[in-house]
Design brief:
Blueprint (H helix, E strand, L loop, with lengths): L4 H15 L11 E3 L4 E3 L14 E8 L5 E5 L16
Antiparallel strand pairs: 1-3, 2-3, 3-4
This protein binds zinc ion.
Length: 88
């Protein structure tokens, strides 16, 4: 899932409000946030896991050293939950 310009702008503003500090590893760069939402699934020994929770994440990479962190796309309001509290 690619983020629209509006979604991306809102998400970057939220991240900068919460974590707008230099990179925690090198202390020099800042986080460059991606526009693509990835999903993490339970490990299934090389097979695609169709069971268990899905965690939608957005990676951000330090512009100086490449340190990469993942933000939860639900917490950032990019991916909604359904009435059962599941990723829809
Ligand atoms: Zn860094």
């Amino acid at each position: 899932m690619y983020l629209s310009d509006e979604q991306w702008d809102e998400m970057v503003e939220r991240i900068n409000r919460r974590a707008g500090k230099p990179c925690p590893l090198c202390g020099e760069g800042h986080l460059a946030v991606g526009r693509l939402v990835f999903e993490m699934r339970p490990f299934a020994f090389g097979s695609a896991s169709l069971e268990g929770p899905i965690l939608p994440v957005i990676p951000a990479e330090c512009t100086s050293c490449g340190y990469t962190v993942l933000f939860n796309a639900v917490s950032l309001g990019v991916v909604p939950l359904d009435e059962d509290g599941e990723v829809s």
